[in-house]
């Protein structure tokens, strides 16, 4: 039997649990179920994972609206676990001309060969499936562009499309993605007359862009890569990292591998948090709440 504590104290205790732990804890007893089955605990955790009230279909008959986020969390993860166990999947079929895709729930971003379709398709997870919500035009091809572009979405309300020498940024404004800024990069190599530079965005927030820059002289003679942190509101680059490989990012941190395969963890702003280990070639993480 659980201690007879005030509800406010139970909520404080349960606030330290993540989604999976909440689902297990509410099965302990009726009292815990009643406390955990509230939107105060579930809403911020689901939104952090990109799960919204319309992500899946919910039956509302006879249910309390005050606990709709709790029911969403339960339905979402129970449906996911059941489908995974039973092998029930409905694949999302990309258009044949799709070049690249980026997923950051609830959104899916698709890019195409710009010589045939110079636009970005934005999908949103609604009722358990991705639905096309908008088609965003891209700038005309320039002489130093490539017809292939790469999407990057690592934040809830902004994504970028990289086109070798520039990145076009779109932001979510009043429920719609709109063009925000086009960031163009100059060659970082002193022999830029001979070196062909290429830039691609790998982490993007409202203010900060992380991008990898590579150049080669052609013919496979040599290749160099750098990682830049760029504040695209002030047009300043506070950090440049040579011989680093981008491994991934979370909401708060960026994960890199050094030339000696050490793991380097930095804040989104570029501040060094930790480094160490050896033989690191990939990293996997999950939200803490």
UniProtKB/TrEMBL annotation:
InterPro entries reported for this sequence: F-box-like_dom_sf, F-box_dom
CDD domains, per the entry: F-box_SF (cd09917)
Top-level taxonomic group: Eukaryota
Record-annotated F-box domain positions: 1-45
Pfam families: F-box-like (PF12937)
Name this protein carries in UniProt: F-box/WD repeat-containing protein 7
Phylogenetic placement of the source organism: Eukaryota, Metazoa, Ecdysozoa, Arthropoda, Hexapoda
């Amino acid at each position: 039997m659980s201690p007879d504590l005030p509800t406010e104290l139970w909520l404080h205790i349960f606030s330290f649990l993540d989604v999976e732990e909440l689902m297990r804890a509410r099965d302990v007893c009726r009292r815990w179920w009643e406390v955990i089955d509230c939107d105060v605990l579930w809403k911020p955790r689901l939104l952090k994972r990109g799960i919204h009230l319309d992500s899946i279909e919910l039956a509302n008959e006879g249910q309390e609206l005050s606990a709709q986020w709790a029911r969403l969390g339960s339905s979402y993860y129970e449906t996911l676990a059941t489908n995974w166990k039973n092998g029930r999947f409905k694949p999302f079929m990309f258009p044949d001309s799709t070049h690249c895709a980026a997923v950051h729930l609830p959104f899916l971003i698709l890019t195409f060969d710009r010589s045939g379709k110079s636009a970005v398709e934005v999908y949103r997870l609604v009722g358990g499936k991705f639905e096309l919500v908008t088609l965003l035009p891209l700038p005309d091809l320039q002489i130093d562009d490539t017809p292939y572009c790469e999407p990057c979405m690592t934040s809830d309300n902004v994504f970028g499309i990289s086109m070798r020498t520039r990145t076009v940024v779109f932001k979510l404004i009043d429920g719609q993605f709109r063009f925000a800024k086009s960031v163009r990069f100059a060659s970082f190599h002193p022999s830029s007359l001979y070196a062909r530079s290429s830039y691609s965005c790998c982490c993007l927030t409202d203010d900060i862009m992380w991008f990898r820059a590579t150049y080669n002289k052609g013919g496979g003679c040599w290749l160099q890569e750098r990682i830049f942190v760029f504040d695209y509101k002030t047009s300043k680059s506070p950090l440049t990292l040579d011989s680093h490989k981008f491994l991934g990012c979370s909401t708060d941190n960026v994960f890199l591998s050094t030339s000696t395969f050490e793991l380097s963890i930095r804040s989104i702003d570029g501040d060094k948090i930790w480094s160490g280990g050896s033989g690191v070639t990939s990293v996997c993480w999950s939200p803490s709440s």
